[in-house]
Amino acid sequence: KNLKTQLAHVAFDGPLLNASGIHCQTADELADLAATANLGGIVTKSATLLPRQGNENPRYYDLAYGSINSMGLPNLGYPFYLDYVQKEEAKPTILSVAGLSADDVIEVLRDVQNSDYQGLTELNLSCPNVIGKPQTAYDFVATRKVLERIFEFFTKPIGVKLPPYFDLVHFDQIAAVLNDFPLTHVNTVNSVGNGLVVDIEKEQVVTKAKGGFGGLGGAMILPTALANVRALRQRLNDNIAIIGTGGVTTGADVFAHILCGADMVSVGTQVIKEGLGVYDRLTQELQDIMDEKGYTSLADFRGKLQEL
Ligand SMILES: O=C(O)c1[nH]c(=O)[nH]c(=O)c1Cl
Q1: What is the pLDDT of residue 53?
Q2: Is the ipTM of this complex over 0.90?
Q3: Which of 13, 62, 84, 110 is buried most, with the most CB atoms less than 10 Å from its CB?
Q4: 73 CA from centroid of ligand 1 (Å)
Q5: What 3-state DSSP class applies to 9?
Q6: What per-residue confidence (pLDDT) applies to 91?
Q7: Which of 26, 71, 126 to mutate to test the pocket of ligand 1 (most atoms within 8 A of CB)?
Q8: Which pLDDT band holds residue 141 (cuts at 50, 70, 90)?
Q9: Residue 124 near ligand 1, beta carbon < 6 Å
Q10: How far is CA 4 from CA 40, 94, 224, 291, in A?
Q11: 283 lines ligand 1 (CB under 6 A)
């Protein structure tokens, strides 16, 4: 079965990635990913100019139907990840970067541009959990401005990580911005921002920062994730690939993301629930579905969701 896929100049043996932030913050976690079968590539934790502790605990809470997190962008600082991705040989990598300001982002990306790194980069425009900071990609003017500044100097392959949108006009507006830039890909969706989980036993919220407001992931966000993959595939230039992220718990969900137009698929919450063995299960389940339907490659069904 041919599960190979391509993102810009980078060939992946399979379509599955870890969602940025999941098991990808430390050297040990990244080494685990490098050794994980059926994981096509590695995405780093979003890296900032300076190292960050992140928000206070509790900052992650598991639910039957998904998860809520308010990690607060904890990471070792971009030099660690920029060094790591230049040494990683086992699997293709995507260096995720984030910033507390546009200036920070520019400073990090200048170093990436001037480094020997030849892999993919992804600008996270959608972290919902940095206290006092907006999800940049909900501001279409700010998004255009930061992309204009980046492409004045950045010539390496770069994509963006988007928050979920919930209005068809917003899909039109973000696509109109992104289509003006030579992006390699869009990764959609980040967590559904600022949800609230309530423990009625204790009559309390379950995460500490921001009064318990946090990003939602897992099964409950699958329909939102699929809608964003589909809507952006319908609107983005063909040369902008899509990484579908959000709500994947089964091979059928991977199939659905690809049917909606995803070139690759990330898995987040389910890795925390099930461990890195989840990639073997999802791959087997996807192959079984492809067998049943007589498909021999992802291209046989990618983007071919039918309307009624
Ligand atoms: O709180 C986080 O670290 C975080 N959490 C998310 O759900 N998405 C992100 O992009 C980030 Cl950066």
Answers
A1: 98
A2: yes
A3: 84
A4: 6
A5: coil
A6: 97
A7: 71
A8: very high
A9: yes
A10: 9, 17, 26, 16
A11: no
pLDDT at 243: 98
Average pLDDT, the chain: 98
Segment 142-199, tens digit of pLDDT: 999 999 999 999 999 999 999 999 999 999 999 999 999 999 999 999 999 999 999 9
**Angstrom distance (rounded) from CA 108 to CA 78:** 7
Tokens of 160: 């963006």
Question: What is the Cα gyration radius of the chain?
Answer: 18
DSSP secondary-structure letter at 304? Answer: -
127 part of the active site: yes
Atom of ligand 1 nearest to the CA of 130: 1
Domains, the chain, in order of start with CATH, read 5-55+73-193+219-300 (3.20.20.70)
| Closest to 271 (Cα-Cα) out of 308, 240, 238, 245 | 245
- Report whether pLDDT(213) > 80: yes
What residue owns the CA closest to ligand 1's atom 11? Answer: 127
Query: Quick one: which atom of ligand 1 is closest to the CA of 59?
Result: 1
Q: Is the pLDDT of residue 265 over 90?
A: yes
Length of the chain, please?
A: 308
Is 178 strand, coil or helix? helix
Mean pLDDT, range 95-123, rounded to an integer = 98
- Helix-helix angle 222-235:251-259, to 10 degrees: 20
The values of phi and psi at residue 256, to 5°, are: -65, -45
**Residue 191 CB less than 6 A away from ligand 1:** yes
β pairing state of 204-205 and 198-199: antiparallel
Rounded distance from Cα 130 to ligand 1 centre (Å):
8
Asked if 97 and 154 count as a contact pair (C-beta separation under 8 A), the reply is no
How many Å apart are CA 157 and CA 155, to the nearest integer? 7
Catalytic, out of 3, 85, 127, 229: 127
* Contact of 95 with 44, CB cutoff 8 Å: yes
- 250 CB near ligand 1 (under 6 Å): no
